[in-house]
UniProtKB/TrEMBL annotation:
<keyword id="KW-1015">Disulfide bond</keyword>
<dbReference type="GO" id="GO:0002143">
    <property type="term" value="P:tRNA wobble position uridine thiolation"/>
</dbReference>
<keyword id="KW-0067">ATP-binding</keyword>
<feature type="disulfide bond" description="Alternate">
    <location>
        <begin position="117"/>
        <end position="214"/>
    </location>
</feature>
<dbReference type="InterPro" id="IPR004506">
    <property type="entry name" value="MnmA-like"/>
</dbReference>
<keyword id="KW-0547">Nucleotide-binding</keyword>
<dbReference type="GO" id="GO:0008168">
    <property type="term" value="F:methyltransferase activity"/>
</dbReference>
<feature type="binding site">
    <location>
        <begin position="23"/>
        <end position="30"/>
    </location>
    <ligand>
        <name>ATP</name>
    </ligand>
</feature>
<feature type="site" description="Interaction with tRNA">
    <location>
        <position position="356"/>
    </location>
</feature>
<feature type="active site" description="Cysteine persulfide intermediate">
    <location>
        <position position="214"/>
    </location>
</feature>
<comment type="function">
    <text>Catalyzes the 2-thiolation of uridine at the wobble position (U34) of tRNA, leading to the formation of s(2)U34.</text>
</comment>
<dbReference type="GO" id="GO:0032259">
    <property type="term" value="P:methylation"/>
</dbReference>
<feature type="binding site">
    <location>
        <position position="49"/>
    </location>
    <ligand>
        <name>ATP</name>
    </ligand>
</feature>
<keyword id="KW-0489">Methyltransferase</keyword>
<dbReference type="InterPro" id="IPR046885">
    <property type="entry name" value="MnmA-like_C"/>
</dbReference>
<comment type="similarity">
    <text>Belongs to the MnmA/TRMU family.</text>
</comment>
<feature type="site" description="Interaction with tRNA">
    <location>
        <position position="142"/>
    </location>
</feature>
Length: 402
C-alpha cells in the first residue's frame, strides 16, 4: 500500500481529516493564515487569547490583542466559517509576561516581552490547549518558516520577507514545539498576505500592524513598572566612567543601554548610556566608543541546531548572531564557559543590553536556519574602559578567531 503523501502543512492525511488550531490575534497575518487553511480544506479552529484588561486599549492604534482585536478575530472566523473561541489567559499572562517584564526593568535590563509571550503563553499553554482539542498542529501568522530535516524533525528558518522576519522573537521555541507548529506565511511577503486578505474579502485587509507592547495601552511602560515595582522609579545619580557624579535621574527604568537622548545633562561631546546599575541606582554614561562590546554572557540558552549543544560545541561554534531585533546578524563564536555559555563577537557591537536576546543563525542573510539563542546576562569589552580613557580593567583572554 502506498503511504499517504504529506499535505501542504507537511502532515500525513487529507486536509479535511486534519484539524488545525490557528492562533488568531485579530490582525491581518493570523486572519489570512486561518482563511488560507480553511480554503485548502483543513478542519480549522480559531482561538483568540484575552491576555490583559483591554478596556483602556480598545481604541489605541498599534496595540494588539485588545477588545477591538477580539471582535475582529470573531468576525473573520464567522466570515470564513470556522468555530472560534476566546480563552481567558489574563492571570497566566500577568504572571509569565507582565510581572517578568517589570522585574527585568527593575534589574536595569531591557526586556523583550514578545519573546516571553511566545515561549510561555502561545507555544506552551496554547499549544497544550490545541493538543487537548485533538489538533494535528498549531498554526500562527508569524513570519518564519520551518523545514523538515532528514531525521524527520523540523528546523526553523528566517522568513522569505527579511523586513518582516520574526525569528528573533521565536528563538526560545523548542524542538518538540517546532514539530507541532506550522507557519504558513513564512515564504510570503506582507503585500502578498494583504492581497490574500482582499481575495478572501476580509474586512481587516488594510488593518494597521501592531507596534507597541500590547499590554501598555498608553505607550508609557513606566506606568506599569511603577505600579508593580515602585523601587524601580526611585531617583539616583548619573555618573561618568570614572564614577564621578555629573547629574541626577528619576529612575533607571527611563533608560536603556545605548540611549543618547533624554539624559538631562549638558556635555561638550555626545554621551550615551553605557551601563545601568540597579543596586546603586546609577546610570553610567560615556562616549560612543565605550558602547562597543565583544563578549556576551548568556542565560536560558535554547539550542535547536543539530545534536545536543554540550556535545557539539567543542572549542566553539562559528555562527552569526543578532543582539537586537533591528540589527543584522554578524559573525561570532559560541563557547562553553564555567557557568554557562558565552558569545564572542568578531567585530564587536554597540549597545548590547542585558535582557535583550542574542539569537543564533547559520548564515548572515537569506532564509538562514535559526540555531537557538539566549538572553543577554552581561556584556564586556576587552578594552572598553581603556578606550574611554579611564582605568583599564583586567584584560580578557585574546579571542579565538578560528
Amino acid at each position: 500500500m502506498t503511504p499517504a503523501m504529506p499535505n501542504s502543512l507537511d502532515l500525513e492525511g487529507r486536509p479535511q481529516d486534519t484539524r488545525i488550531v490557528v492562533a488568531m490575534s485579530g490582525g491581518v497575518d493570523s486572519s489570512v493564515t486561518a482563511a488560507l487553511l480553511k480554503s485548502e480544506g483543513y478542519d480549522v479552529v480559531g482561538i483568540t487569547l484575552q491576555l490583559y484588561d483591554h478596556g483602556a486599549a480598545t481604541h489605541r492604534k498599534g496595540a494588539c490583542c485588545a477588545g477591538r482585536d477580539i471582535h475582529d478575530a470573531r468576525n473573520v472566523a464567522e466570515r470564513i466559517g470556522i468555530p472560534h473561541y476566546v480563552l481567558d489567559y489574563e492571570s497566566r499572562f500577568r504572571e509569565s509576561v507582565i510581572d517578568n517584564f517589570a522585574d527585568s526593568y527593575a534589574l536595569g535590563e531591557t526586556p523583550v516581552p514578545c519573546i516571553e509571550c511566545n515561549r510561555s503563553i502561545k507555544f506552551r499553554d496554547l499549544l497544550a490547549t490545541a493538543r487537548e482539542l485533538g489538533a494535528h498542529a498549531l498554526a500562527t501568522g508569524h513570519y518564519v518558516a520551518s523545514r523538515r530535516l532528514a531525521d524527520g524533525s523540523r528546523a526553523m528558518v528566517c522568513a522569505a520577507d527579511s523586513d518582516r522576519d520574526q525569528s528573533y522573537f521565536l528563538f526560545a521555541t523548542t524542538r518538540e514545539q517546532l514539530d507541532y507548529l506550522r507557519f504558513p506565511l513564512g515564504d510570503m511577503s506582507k503585500p502578498e498576505v494583504r492581497e490574500l486578505a482582499r481575495r478572501f474579502e476580509l474586512e481587516i485587509a488594510d488593518k494597521q500592524d501592531s507596534q507597541d507592547i500590547c499590554f501598555v495601552p498608553t505607550g508609557r511602560y513606566t506606568d506599569i513598572i511603577g505600579r508593580l515595582k515602585p523601587g524601580a522609579i526611585e531617583p539616583g545619580d548619573i555618573v561618568d566612567l570614572g564614577g564621578n557624579v555629573i547629574g541626577r535621574h528619576q529612575g533607571i527604568v527611563h533608560f536603556t543601554v545605548g540611549q543618547r537622548k533624554g539624559l538631562g545633562i549638558a556635555s561638550s561631546a555626545p554621551l550615551y548610556v553605557v551601563k545601568l546599575d540597579a543596586l546603586s541606582r546609577r546610570v553610567v554614561v560615556g562616549p560612543r566608543e565605550a558602547l562597543r562590546m565583544d563578549r556576551i554572557r548568556l542565560r536560558d540558552v535554547n539550542w535547536i541546531g543539530d545534536g545536543p549543544l554540550d556535545r557539539v560545541i567543542g572549542d566553539g561554534i562559528e555562527m552569526f548572531v543578532r543582539v537586537r531585533s533591528t540589527r543584522p546578524p554578524q559573525p561570532a563564536w559560541l563557547r562553553a564557559v564555567d557557568d554557562g555559555y558565552e558569545v564572542e563577537l568578531v567585530a564587536g557591537e554597540e549597545g548590547v543590553s542585558p535582557g535583550q536576546a542574542c539569537v543564533f543563525y547559520d548564515a548572515a542573510a537569506g532564509q538562514a536556519r535559526v540555531l537557538g539563542g539566549g538572553f543577554i546576562k552581561s556584556a564586556t569589552a576587552r578594552n572598553a574602559v581603556a578606550r574611554a580613557g579611564a582605568q583599564e580593567t583586567a584584560p580578557l583572554a585574546e579571542a579565538m578567531r578560528g
